[in-house]
């Protein structure tokens, strides 16, 4: 092996086995994998995709630790935006939210929940692909953020009368450590 071969990847004849650490990134999480976040180990139970059309995708991983369930989402825009959210009881938003959607097609522009005011940022229609497999199930999603842009509220409508709500916050990829593939 010559001096410049070091910069080309070294001697191709030596096999040091598979690279077990390379490629274990948050964006590549798969069901059965484990990841540490906030002093807990979480198991990836599912990987879903939201298709908002024209190549605009949101990836979602369901993470479980004990009886806690959270959803890690990745949206690709100019940069990768990571967020964590939890399902909340839709009734916490008050009857007026569901009534507004049913009467006007949209929820209110602002929603106050637990003393925090959330402002509507965007609305999108798309398809939810369970386990990233099609065909997808159609949905509408309204996204809200607080004054600081740190917390968010999401409302999803599935069909005529099925609604879900999520509370969440933005996170950074470096906050997740010790990614381990399934055994």
Structure, explained:
The chain is mainly β and 183 residues long. 5% of the residues lie in helices and 51% in strands. Strands 2-3-4-5-10-9-8-7 form an eight-stranded antiparallel beta barrel.
Describe the structure concisely for a colleague.
This protein has 183 residues and is mainly beta. Helices cover 5% and strands 51% of the residues. It has one helix and eleven strands.
Task: Please outline the major beta sheet.
Answer: 8 strands, antiparallel, barrel
User: How many helix segments?
Assistant: 1
Residues in helices, as a percent range: under 10%
Q: Order of helices and strands, N to C?
A: EEEEEHEEEEEE
Report the radius of gyration as a whole number of Å.
20 Å
Enumerate the spans where pLDDT stays under 50 for 5 or more consecutive residues.
3-7, 9-19
- Straight-line distance between termini: 37 Å
Anisotropy-based shape: globular
Overall average pLDDT: 88
Q: Output the strand order for the largest sheet.
A: 2-3-4-5-10-9-8-7
